């Protein structure tokens, strides 16, 4: 026999939200890791481009910041994060296209 319910007890069982939060946290961590990896790859790519172009070492960070700022203006934050995350997961050649990735003068995301 079941004991009587307390007068202030809810009529329904509590909903488990912890597993959903755990999945969301894992997804966010994976996306953050992808973005960090993408930024690292883009940084190396830009560093090579500046070196090949003869840009002085002290100016390279400023040049890279201009590229990132331009991409943010063009793409917006959400699309920028998506593009950088994709670079982190798939690599520059697959995102920009193999021929485009080897050309340091081309830095637009592929439309394929």
Would you kindly provide a written description of the structure presented here, covering whatever features stand out?
Mean pLDDT is 79; it is low at 104-112. Helix 1 (18-53) crosses helix 2 (57-90). The chain is mainly alpha-helical and 112 residues long. It has helices at 18-53, 57-90, 92-96, 98-101. Helix content is 71%, strand content 0%. The chain has a domain at 27-101.
Short description:
This protein has 112 residues and is mainly α. It contains four helices and no strands.
State the helix count. Answer: 4
Helix vs. strand class: mainly alpha
Multimeric organization: single chain
- Evaluate the radius of gyration: 23 Å
Please mark out the parts with pLDDT under 50 across 5 or more consecutive residues, or reply none: 104-112
- SS strand fraction: under 5%
Summarize the main sheet. none
N-to-C series of helices and strands: HHHH
Structure keywords:
mainly alpha; disordered C terminus; 112 residues; elongated
Helix and strand topology:
Elements: H1 18-53, H2 57-90, H3 92-96, H4 98-101
Helix pairs in contact: 1-2
